[in-house]
Write a structure and sequence with these properties.
The protein has 526 residues and is an alpha+beta fold. The protein folds into 4 domains: 42-146, PAS domain (Beta-Lactamase); 166-255, PAS domain (Beta-Lactamase); 276-381, PAS domain (Beta-Lactamase, 2-Layer Sandwich), CATH 3.30.450.20; 402-525, Beta-Lactamase, CATH 3.30.450.20. Helix content is 40%, strand content 24%. The chain contains 18 helices and 21 strands. Strands 16, 17, 18, 19, 20 and 21 form a 6-stranded antiparallel β-sheet that branches. A 5-stranded antiparallel β-sheet has the order 2-1-5-4-3. Strands 7-6-10-9-8 form a 5-stranded antiparallel β-sheet. A hairpin with a 5-residue loop joins strand 11 (279-283) and strand 12 (289-292). The longest helix has 31 residues, at 5-35. It is elongated and about 135 Å long. It starts with a helix and ends with a helix.
Length: 526
């Protein structure tokens, strides 16, 4: 059979061409692979690898990203990585600076951390490459991520431990009120209430009324009756869920005890204030009336229903003005300004005034600051005291007028030797009024004045001894001669309470004493 050389040649040419094309494709593929840059993660793309440029995360493997997503630490990726590595590699942050000089570093996890791990750190082209290796990862099935599972299990154990050791009661209940889960504190409290040997039933026993949790109002105060007659107080907070409720109960024994103590204290204060004759009004930091006593009603005339509404300080003063219980100002605008100044002064503890009311009463008003910005206003009726003071002043003025009309020069000294009173004749005789100056008005100082204006005489020293004697004393007389030649008779008499009275009279030429006024008239006539 004849060979078809044409067909054979075509077949050979096609085979050669196909071979050449294949060789070209292989060369192009190899060149493409060699020309493509290798990833910095290398052949560990399935491991837990982080690539950082400083604190900036440049790249990471899927397991590394899952580890970051499972972290509860607040901060960037570098902070989360450090937080995760800290329990396993406590010296990592301290040894990390030597990575820049050595280039590579390998650390083994602390034995106290539990499961062993290896950390490989490498500095390459200004980047930091961290590789976490877990020896147990070799036994994992494809698709499992041991690092992420370990992080989730550790977080789960941490949450379980936290909830079990929490000092508050936590439980979850269904919509019908059945308790289906509770933490350790709740179970311990139930165990304290159970009888010895009594086992837990299902659903778990309830400690609080079902109605309280069903209402879902946060901050409800509830109590649990303990064995022996004691009581434990709690404040409950409810979180609604799809098929039930999550309830938290915080211990409130300290709060209840403090509130009871405060209530008892307030009752004691109220009973004490009720017997005071001073009107008391306490305003809080918002200047609302917080506490008042019955005396305030009597002094101000304000109705109790008005004060029970807790009016403001300005409202109380306005109501008092309407009843003429404060001094009437010249203008209302100025009066309101005075009220503002009263509030400021009372808050700083500087307000104290005497109010003369149109009805004739006189009130002493004192403002004092209290803790937390509160102020206390105290109103006292001092009308009787003012009447006695005015009467005393009138009596003093009358007594002074009487002795001023006595022609004998008189000076009265107290037990301590201080001048109490002197008359006009004394001023005319000695030329000075010791009661009207700030100079020393003691007996010793005035004896020096008398000694300087008279001839030498032992009578002044004897007078000092007489006044200083606190025993039994007897009145006596003496005489002294002034530097101008006049002779004066001196009379010294003890008074009640250790006081001493001294009288001076100018003696007539014939031997009869004459008064200072008569001698003064004679000198004027001469």
């Amino acid at each position: 059979m004849a060979i078809d050389w044409t067909t054979t040649a075509v077949a050979i040419l096609a085979a050669v061409t196909a071979g050449a094309i294949g060789i070209v494709i292989v060369i192009l593929v190899e060149r493409g692979v060699k020309g493509r840059p290798a990833t910095v993660l290398g052949d560990q793309a399935v491991s837990t690898v982080f690539l950082f440029d400083g604190d900036l995360l440049v790249d990471s493997t899927p397991s590394a990203r899952a580890l970051l997503a499972a972290s509860a630490t607040v901060g960037g990726p570098w902070v989360k990585v450090l937080a995760y590595l800290a329990p396993y590699f406590p010296d990592f942050e301290r040894q990390f600076p030597r990575l820049t000089t050595e280039g590579t570093m390998t650390l083994a996890s602390s034995p106290a951390a539990g499961n062993p791990m290896i950390l490989q750190a490498e500095a390459r082209s200004g980047l930091t490459r961290l590789v976490l290796i877990d020896p147990e990862s070799e036994n994992l099935a494809p698709g499992q991520d041991l690092m992420t599972m370990r992080a989730m299990n550790e977080e789960l154990d941490f949450l379980r431990t936290t909830v079990s050791k929490a000092p508050i009661l936590i439980w979850r209940e269904r919509g019908n009120g059945d308790v289906i889960w509770a933490n350790g504190a709740y179970l311990l409290r139930v165990g304290d209430l159970n009888e010895p040997g009594q086992e837990f039933s299902w659903p778990l026993p309830r400690l609080f009324e079902r109605v309280a949790s069903e209402q879902g109002v946060s901050g409800q105060r509830q109590k649990v009756s303990l064995k022996g007659g004691g009581t434990a107080w709690y404040e409950s907070y409810t979180v609604a869920e799809t098929d039930g409720r999550l309830v938290f109960a915080l211990p409130a024994d300290a709060i209840v005890t403090a509130e009871n103590a405060m209530h008892d204290f307030m009752q004691t204060l109220t009973k004490t204030f009720a017997h005071l004759h001073v009107g008391l009004a306490i305003f809080d930091h918002q200047r609302q009336l917080h506490l008042f006593n019955p005396a305030l009603l009597d002094l101000t005339g304000l109705p109790v229903d008005f004060l029970s509404l807790r009016p403001s300080l300005l409202s109380v003063l306005d109501a008092m003005r309407d009843r003429n219980m404060i001094p009437e100002p010249k203008d209302y605008r100025g009066w309101r300004r005075q009220l503002v100044e009263l509030e400021k002064a009372a808050a700083s503890g500087l307000y104290e005034e005497t109010w003369s009311l149109p009805g004739g009463q006189t009130y002493r008003v004192i403002g004092r600051p209290h803790p937390n910005g509160a102020i206390a206003l105290m109103i006292e009726d001092i009308s009787g005291e003012m009447i006695r003071t005015r009467r005393y002043r009138a009596d003093m003025e009358l007594g002074q007028a009487v002795i001023d009309h006595v022609q004998e020069a008189l000076a009265v000294f107290s037990e301590s030797g201080q001048l109490v009173v002197s008359n006009t004749a004394y001023v005319d005789l000695w030329g000075s009024d010791p009661c009207g100056t700030l100079d020393d008005a003691s007996l010793r100082a005035l004896c020096a004045v008398w000694r300087a204006q008279s001839a030498p005489n032992p009578v002044w020293s004897e007078l000092e001894d007489f006044a200083a004697n606190q025993g039994s004393r007897t009145a006596w007389h003496a005489e002294a001669r002034l530097l101008d030649g006049r002779l004066i008779d001196c009379r010294f008499a003890p008074l009640a309470g250790g006081a001493t009275m001294i009288g001076f009279s100018i003696r007539e030429v014939g031997g009869t004493p004459r008064t200072v006024s008569a001698a003064k008239d004679r000198l004027l006539r001469a």
